């Protein structure tokens, strides 16, 4: 079902690809330089050995999503990374991006929320340089409701809806804005 639905999602979001329609210089640079970056990073080859090729799509999220996590953590360069939910492969990607970061289960500068933990997730107080990545924001009605609550939270400044992931930024020097991206 997921493989059949993917082309339809891409067609619906066709006009939201490559940063089209994004007028903020910060958001455009973030999309083009981090989210939509296609170049190889130093740890991709080593990290792709964590899971065999036949498992990459069966887990539920393609390798592009995990590489996005790596790029986001590399961009944010947080001191602490909180992983809400049990995701060992995603944890390896995040830890490889910032080896000096402390991994926690509670609160951090960078928070990754797995889909199975999304419905019970409450947004902790975040620093202006903080980032939250929520997995599976469109998988069911509960996840969509949680995503709406997170993006409407007063401390959230800029959000990016990538369909599989939702990214929340908290820098209030930026205008509150919600972007839909064809990732």
Short précis:
The chain is 34% helix and 16% strand. With 183 residues, it is α/β, with parallel strands linked by helices.
Explain what the structure shows:
The chain contains six helices and seven strands. The chain has helices at residues 2-12, 25-35, 44-48, 63-76, 88-97, 141-151, and strands spanning 80-84, 102-104, 110-113, 131-135, 158-161, 165-169, 177-180. The longest helix is centred in the middle third of the chain and has 14 residues, at 63-76. Helix 4 packs parallel to helix 5. By secondary structure, it is of the alpha/beta class. The protein is globular and about 40 Å long. A seven-stranded mixed beta sheet has the order 2-1-3-4-6-5-7, with helices on both faces. It has a single domain, classed as 3-Layer(aba) Sandwich (Rossmann fold), CATH 3.40.50. Strand 1, helix 5 (88-97) and strand 2 (102-104) form a beta-alpha-beta unit. The mean pLDDT is 81.
């Amino acid at each position: 079902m997921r493989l059949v639905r993917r082309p339809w999602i891409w067609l619906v979001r066709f006009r939201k690809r490559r940063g089209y329609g994004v007028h903020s210089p910060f958001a455009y640079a973030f999309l083009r330089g981090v989210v939509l970056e296609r170049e190889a990073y130093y740890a991709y080859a080593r990290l792709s050995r964590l899971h065999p090729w036949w498992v990459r799509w069966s887990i539920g999220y393609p390798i592009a999503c995990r590489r996005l996590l790596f790029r986001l953590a590399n961009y944010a360069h947080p001191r602490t990374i909180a992983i809400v939910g049990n995701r060992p492969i995603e944890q390896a990607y995040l830890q490889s991006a910032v080896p000096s970061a402390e991994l926690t289960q509670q609160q951090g500068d960078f928070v990754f929320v797995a889909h199975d933990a999304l419905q019970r997730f409450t947004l902790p107080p975040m620093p202006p340089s903080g980032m939250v990545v929520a997995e599976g924001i469109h998988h069911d009605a509960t996840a969509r409701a949680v995503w709406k609550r997170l993006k409407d939270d007063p401390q959230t400044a800029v959000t990016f809806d990538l369909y599989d992931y939702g990214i929340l930024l908290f820098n209030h020097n930026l205008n509150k804005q919600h972007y839909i991206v064809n990732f």
